[in-house]
Amino acid sequence: MAWQEQVATFVAERGPALVGYARLLTGDHDSAQDLVQDALAKAWSRWRAGADIESLEAYVRRAVLSTYLDQYRRRRLWQRRVHLLATPESEPAREAATDVAADLASALRHLSPRERACVVLRFYEDLTVAGIAARLQLSEGAVKRYLSDGTRRLGALMGDASAAHEMVEVRATTEDRR
Predict the structure, then answer these.
(1) Each residue of 114-150: pLDDT tens digit?
(2) Full-model pTM
(3) Considering its fold, how many domains does the chain have in total?
C-alpha cells in the first residue's frame, strides 16, 4: 500500500475522532480541523515507512495538544502587543446556548489552556493524574491543581447541578426538623 493510501485510510478511520478531540481544545470546528491537519502534516513527515500505523494516532494526538498550546502562547504574546498597533475590536455577540454540548464548549473557552488540556485529557481521554502529568510534562501536583481549578470553574460556569442538589437536600432536612 502506498503512503498516500495509508494517509487516506488513516484520516478516513480516525479523522473524526481526532477532530472531536481538537474541537474540545479549541472550541471551534474549523480551528479543530486546521489543528488536526497541522498535526497530521507534522506526524506524517516524521513517520518512517514500515513503522506501526497504530502508534501514529498517539503521536498525532500529542502533536494536536502541543500545537494547540503553542498557538495559544503565540496568540497571548500577540494580544499583549496588539494594542500598540490597533484599536481593540468589539467582541461578536454570543448566541444563546441551547444544549449541554454548547454550554460545555462555551465553558471550556473560559478555562486557561493548561486547565482545559488537563480537563480534556482527564475526562475525554480518561487519563490518570500521572498520565496527564507525563503527557504535559508537569508535576502531579500541578495537574491536580489545574484539574481542581478547571472543574471548579466549569461547575460555576455551567451551574453545578450536584451543588444545587445538595442545597435542596440540606434545606429539606432543615425544614423537616422544624
Answers:
(1) 999 999 899 888 899 999 999 999 999 999 999 999 9
(2) 0.51
(3) 2
